[in-house]
Amino acid sequence: MSAQARARISAALKGRSHPHRGHAVSSATRAKISAALRGKHHPHRGHLMSASARAKLSASLKGKKHPHKGHAVSSATRQKLSAALKGRKRK
Question: Does pTM surpass 0.70?
Fold first, then answer.
């Protein structure tokens, strides 16, 4: 994008509100929401786990391979794959 085009778009958008911001919230309302959520855990985190449970889980998984890693590849095969993919554009 040229500098002139960027400046033209910037001038056109000046003073407009951000499209994904939502409606304005007063500082009193923001404080009320903040107070209501204080101490709560994140909704996507799952249930809270005790330190002993976390340690037990960690110990049981130690030494196990990662579930999404795929099968092991020798260094020679890895080099061959790397050479084959070199120069290709990735999406």
Answer: no
DSSP character string of 42-84 = PTTS-S---HHHHHHHHHHHTTPPPTTS-S---HHHHHHHHHH
Identify the helix (H) or strand (E) that includes residue 72: none
CA distances from 32 to 40, 56, 75 (A): 14, 39, 58
> Which residue has 């070199």 as its token pair?
86
Cα–Cα distance, 39 to 28 (Å, whole number): 19
**One digit per residue, pLDDT tens: the chain, 91 residues?**
899 999 999 899 888 877 777 888 899 999 999 999 888 877 777 888 899 999 999 999 998 888 777 888 899 999 998 999 887 766 6
Residues 6+ apart with CB under 8 A from 57: 49
Close Cβ partners of 41 (under 8 Å, ≥ 6 residues apart): 48
